[in-house]
Amino acid sequence: MSRNPAVSWFALVALLAAACGPKDRSDTTSASAGASTPVVSGASTDTGTSGSTQPEVRTVTYEKAESAFASGKYSDAVQQFSLYTESRPENPWGHYMLGMSAWRGGEPERALSAFDRSLELDPTHRKSLFNSSRVLLDLGRAQEALERIEKALVQEPMSNEGLRLLGRARYQLGQVDQAIEAYQRALVVDEHDVWSMNNIGLIYLDQNRSSEALAPLARAVELRGNAPVFQNNLGMALERCGYPVAAAKAYEAAIAADSTYQKSSVALARVTSGEQRPESETVDLDTLAQQFVGQIETWRSSEAATSVPDSAGEIVQPAGDSTTSSIEARSDSVEHCECGE
User: Fold this and answer.
1) Is residue 141 part of a domain?
2) 307: Cβ–Cβ under 8 A, 6 or more apart, which residues?
3) Are residues 152 and 245 in the same domain?
4) Tell me: the pLDDT tens digits for 213-266?
5) The domain containing residue 302 runs over which residues?
6) Closest CA to 200 of 187, 192, 188, 190
7) How open is the CA angle 233-236-241, to the nearest 5 degrees?
8) Which of 45, 110, 161, 219 is most buried, judged by most C-beta within 10 A?
9) What are phi and psi of 8, to 5 degrees?
């Protein structure tokens, strides 16, 4: 019987196609994932065939990792942002959020490494500059923190967040007057910045200038009376100034805001023990708070007076110390500054 050459050729092609089969595409990005939705290969899983495995494919998006961070699941956020940065290494925000997650999760050195990577990609990344400086301050490396804060303030000299961080760094370095000035300028920018009020009060308490601490702390409590740390610090200032009755009220307010606030519980027991001398006069906290508002206005006027117009009519700072002259005044992290004995 004669053979048809065309039939034999097509049969051969079919056999070759079956032998080769389709190539595995599990290492590609899904078409629906988009630029911010990388598909990341995770741990291998058994397929049921002896000796063979295939990668488990997990989708990690920025939004999913950020959701873990927002929920306070910092170890999960670290894991997810680690995967995200492996698949999107060129995105500074991924490294920034990895740093934030590691910092909140108690891994400061890992946080610094991630922030540094973000800054390698974008040296002007302000949030990485500010938040890496917070980590450095927590680690007691104030000089390194100061350098980063100043870099960020060059970009945004009116940053209230930057000025408050500048105050913290200056005070850690023992530069008391410069720290107070930084907080004052932060209040010129935002007269409702309760953390700058609190931190000025703390400096005065640390420097045994308790009477000067009363006004800023009274104003902080007036604006946010449900903050136990502010009430506690005001109570400490009142106690040191000889107002045990008023101090007791402040400590009680702190405990009412947070029943677990141990420092105020100890202080309240101290001022109500009967060993304190009675007050010879009362203290008007409302008046003190309003006096502090007036002080801020005075600083604002002084700030305006020391600014001079350049030839184009724009306002510039006079030449001088760049760490103060370039600064004019939100922090996404709580400042745990409190006083206690």
Assistant:
1) yes
2) 315, 316, 317, 318
3) no
4) 999 999 999 999 999 999 999 999 999 999 999 999 999 999 999 999 999 999
5) 190-306+321-341
6) 187
7) 130
8) 219
9) -65, -40
What H or E segment, with its residue span, contains residue 302? helix 285-305
The pTM for the full model equals 0.73
330 contacts 320 by C-beta, under 8 angstroms: no
Strands 53-59 and 39-46: antiparallel
Q: Does residue 95 lie in a domain region?
A: yes
Residue type, 216: P
The answer on 141 and 204 residing in a single domain is no
Domain boundary, last residue among 156, 179, 200: 156
**Token pair for 283:** 């203290």
* Residues 203, 149 share a domain: no
CA distance 99 to 101: 5
* Torsion sign, CA atoms 245, 250, 253, 254: negative
Q: Distance between CA 286 and CA 289 in Å, rounded?
A: 5
Q: Using an 8 Å Cβ cutoff, are 233 and 197 in contact?
A: no
Looking up residue 233, the CATH number of its domain turns out to be 1.25.40.10
